[in-house]
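ok here's the first one, seq then struct tokens
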Amino acid sequence: MAAPLLVLDDVRKVYTRGRVIRRPTFTLQANLSLEEPGIVGVVGPNGAGKTTLFEMMTGSNAPTSGRVLVAGTDIHGVKYRERDRLAIHYHQSYQVRRFRKRVPSALLAPSPTRTPLVHLFDEPQFNLQDGYIGFMLDFFRKLRDEGRLVILCMHPTASWHLDILAEIAGRFLFVAGGGVTPMADFRALVADPRCRSYLGPDMTKAADAICQRST
């Protein structure tokens, strides 16, 4: 039986401050398993730890305790080049430049075997006017269909952001209060009181409308 694509095994990251007496300023904890290829949406307030979570998943930020396993391999226990084979973090500015330079045919071509198993997209800038949004979504689906795990972090500020999440993501992670909560689907995410508070009245209304349309 193949190992899960991504496991956060009692992962804990503690940031501290102070030279003599170190006092914790922020703690992020996560314990989850994403067994199969898919597209996972990540949402949560600013400062909740989403970027820290992504950095731990890709090996660039070591947890204070716990392990991050990609296909059974501890990503913090291998060399840099091996980490790149396991997971990659597309930062916002890098991701936008990369995709604007690519033609659609390149996006949809089969991925080489060295393509990482886990792809993390950190708040990509979807522009409705440049025509690339459809190609990017197809690229996410292509990675999923080739057996990879796509994790997409978004900060919804418009109703069409929610449409993207509802359409593309099969599962969700809600990051808030120093914790990471797995959600089975978009409906479960929107039903969570913490998520509704984070979205605010207008975005919550838009999310409810999306759920109603899908019934």
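and now the second one, same deal
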Amino acid sequence: MSATVSIPTPGRWVALLLRRQPHQIIGNHDAPYLQRWYLIPHNRVINLYLHKFLSSDDDRALHDHPWWFASLILRGQYIEVSQHGRRRRRPGSVAFRPATFRHRVELIRDSHRIPACDDMNPKQSREKPCWTVILTGPRRRGWGFWCPRERFVPWQNFGAGGCGENQDRP
């Protein structure tokens, strides 16, 4: 996964927000994972984002965050997968999470059949976007993915190699 990590300047922040253009696109630009709008100018104390999830988190590992956060689902829904199990999050659902909480988001798939297919194949159904508001505290730590046997992989190193599952293949 690639990430656009640029932070808009105060003047650009307002212009993009008024044009309803995301401040950040996370993932590949041709198939983005997430669009992010800054609802207040980015700062070191507290941040407020509008997120539009366009695809599920990588299913190879759970991840944590660099800050505590609270999320409110506005529209759409998803399954939150954590070490505690799976939980459906619907509009109005609020979650408070410490930075160390490990989870991943699975978007709900469209249940409509694709006309050319006799059987419903989950890979051929579309994921439904989900809109959330995220409140974060100050950055306190690095973040990344938690692989089998409690092995931590920083987000910058995860990429196509993931937890190393592709390295064993010839």
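notes on #2: The helical segments are 10-18, 155-158. Residues 10-18 form the longest helix (9 residues).
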